[in-house]
C-alpha cells in the first residue's frame, strides 16, 4: 500500500453500514442500487458535475451480475475503480481511487433531518389556537395549551345542585341566619 493509503477494511466497514441501511433483512455482504446511490451521495462521490446520479446508476448496472439486484464488495470496488477517474479528472487511476476511498472510509448513512417539523405559514395559521372559534375555542386555555378531557367532554356536575342554579353553596349561610 502507498504512503497514507486508506485501508480497504475501512472502506468495507462503510460498505457494510450502507448495505444494511433501510433494509432489515440485509446481511451487509451485498448492496442494492438505492443504497449504492445513497453511499455515493452521502460521501460526496456524486458532485453534480463530473459524477451524477445517472453515472452512478449506469456503473452499478454495469458491475452487477445480469440477473442480480445487488453487488458484492468486489463488484463495489470495481464500480469505484470506474467512478474514480470520472470524479477526479487529471489524476492517475490509483491516485483517484485513493481519493475516492478517503471520501468513503469511516462514513455512515446520514439520517439527520429526515423528519423535520414543517414551518409553513399555512400550518402555523391552522395550529394557532388563538384564532379558534366556537366549541373548539373551549378546548384550549389562554396560553394555547390543550385542556385535555376537561375541554372536550361535558363533565357532569355531581355537586347536587340543579344545572344553572346561581345560589350554589349558600345553604349553610341561610341556616345560620334562621
UniProtKB/TrEMBL annotation:
Gene3D superfamilies the record matches: EF-hand
Location of the region described as Disordered in the Swiss-Prot/TrEMBL record: 134-156
PANTHER family on file: P25 ALPHA-RELATED (PTHR12932), TUBULIN POLYMERIZATION-PROMOTING PROTEIN FAMILY MEMBER 2 (PTHR12932:SF24)
Subcellular location: Cytoplasm
Protein name: Tubulin polymerization-promoting protein family member 3-like
Organism expressing this protein natively: Echeneis naucrates
Keywords: Cytoplasm
GO molecular function ontology, one term from the record: tubulin binding
SUPFAM superfamilies per the UniProt record, alphabetical: EF-hand
Amino acid at each position: 500500500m502507498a504512503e497514507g493509503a486508506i485501508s480497504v477494511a475501512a472502506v468495507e466497514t462503510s460498505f457494510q453500514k450502507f448495505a444494511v441501511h433501510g433494509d432489515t433483512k440485509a446481511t451487509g455482504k451485498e448492496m442494492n442500487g438505492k443504497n449504492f446511490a445513497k453511499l455515493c451521495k452521502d460521501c460526496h462521490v456524486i458532485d453534480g458535475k463530473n459524477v451524477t446520479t445517472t453515472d452512478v446508476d449506469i456503473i452499478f448496472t454495469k458491475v452487477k451480475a445480469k440477473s442480480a439486484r445487488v453487488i458484492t464488495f468486489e463488484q463495489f470496488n470495481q464500480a469505484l475503480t470506474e467512478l474514480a477517474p470520472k470524479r477526479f479528472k487529471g489524476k492517475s487511476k490509483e491516485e483517484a481511487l485513493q481519493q475516492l476511498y478517503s471520501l468513503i472510509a469511516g462514513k455512515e448513512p446520514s439520517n439527520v433531518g429526515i423528519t423535520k417539523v414543517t414551518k409553513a405559514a399555512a400550518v402555523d395559521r391552522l395550529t394557532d389556537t388563538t384564532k379558534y372559534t366556537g366549541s373548539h375555542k373551549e378546548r384550549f386555555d389562554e396560553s394555547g395549551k390543550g385542556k385535555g378531557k376537561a375541554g372536550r367532554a361535558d363533565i357532569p356536575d355531581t355537586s347536587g345542585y340543579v344545572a344553572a342554579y346561581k345560589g350554589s353553596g349558600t345553604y349553610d349561610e341561610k341556616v345560620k341566619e334562621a
